[in-house]
Amino acid sequence: MQTSSSSEPSRLKRTLGLPSVLLFGLAYMAPLIVYGTYGVLAKASDDTAALAYLLALIAIGFTALSYGKLARLFPVAGSAYTYTRKTFNPHLGFMIGWATLLDYFFLPMVIWLIGAAYLNAAFPHVPTWIWIVAFIVLTSVLNIVGIELAARFNIVLMIVQLAITAMFVVLCWHYASAAAGPGGIAMAEPFFKPHVPFGATMAGAAIAAYSYLGFDAVSTLTEETIDPTRNMPRAILLIALIGGAIFVIAAYTMQLAHPGVEFKDTDSAAFEVAKMIGGDVFVTVFLAGLILAQFASGISAQASVGRLLYAMGRDEILPKRVFGFIHPRFKTPAFNIALAGIVGLIALKLDVATSTSFINFGAFLAFTAVNLCVVRVYLSGNHGGLKIGLIGGMIFPLIGAVADIWLLASLEKTALVLGAVWFVLGLAYLCWITRLFRQAPPEVAI
């Protein structure tokens, strides 16, 4: 029971500046993972991986602008869930929150599973489950103890990732230059392949968009960000642009060094290329960096899902006493973080292909909703003091929404079916908690 001195509601501490938020977003995206998924993307896009990343960046860029506008208007944790609930209505807000939970909840699990798979390949005598449990325990402790500690840890991990990525790009370019001989490198070839159908490239772009998820995840840290109306929009756009530039350049140089999609193992194509361009020493460095990237990404992913659950619990859409709990000492949503770790144990029974098949379904729905929220705000005329013109309030977000829907439709059928099942389950839960929609889910006062 609270005393009078503690009657004020628990609040998250504002301790993160622009650099920390930027690093969290980039760590969530894990720039180095572009190499870990390169083979799958190259095959799906018919060797147009660089163009697929560029097309995905265009769609994500317009969506990032919409996130930035809404982060200024609603400086609270919750991401697309909060924006849709406050712009449209609580029922739609709940459904977007439910769809967002699809990628937030399962993304940490996928990250830990991929990291464990790489470690198992390097140390086959150590069971995979040991690596998965180790990832979960370490990241959970860091996130519960405090976002500041995790942010400082991310600085070191991001420096390592960016350094190895730069080495990979330089080695690919050097190898491609040497292989090209007197004729020189065919500079435009990774972007222009007339024989490849545009649909194949779009299918690749739908997969490539998975790599961009971190740009929107940092909006869940709004209540812990210093001067959020200024820093959050900047961070969101910078994360999308910087991450996109890294992905496009990495895929471009990989295609120059290894044209085509013939690999010994598509899932580990980057290891084959790494050995080709840098030998055994670089392969070892690359593996170490990739594991660090997965660890950093897992920290940010788990932090984000914990804060999304906190926002929904605080609104009493989920039980408030449980999901709206803030640890009295560490001032973090400790229960939600631990729950994300427990969900990650599902990875013990899944493989990478199954666990990643439907994550983007929820992401694309959330991205579409955010763009439509900006359109709704613009048409309502209630801009909360913000200057929103026709281009920024209507044209750009509509382009973003159409692009996101196109990417959603480009997902494989399995992802669409599993995503639809998840959505229906959420609709049934909403029907139950609102007594057949006769009442709105509880709202929170900002």
From TrEMBL:
> Key word Transmembrane present in the record?
yes
Question: Which Pfam families does the annotation name?
Answer: AA_permease (PF00324)
Q: Where in the cell is it found?
A: Membrane
**Which UniProt keywords are given for this protein, alphabetically ordered?**
Membrane, Transmembrane, Transmembrane helix
Q: What sequence ranges are listed for the domain Amino acid permease/ SLC12A? A: 33-370
Coiled-coil intervals, chain numbering: none
Transmembrane segments annotated in the record for this chain: 21-38, 50-71, 92-114, 126-146, 153-176, 196-215, 235-254, 281-312, 358-379, 388-409, 415-433
Its main localization is membrane
Statement: the UniProt record of this protein carries the keyword Transmembrane: yes
> What is this entry's stated membrane topology?
Multi-pass membrane protein
What protein does this entry describe? Answer: APC family permease
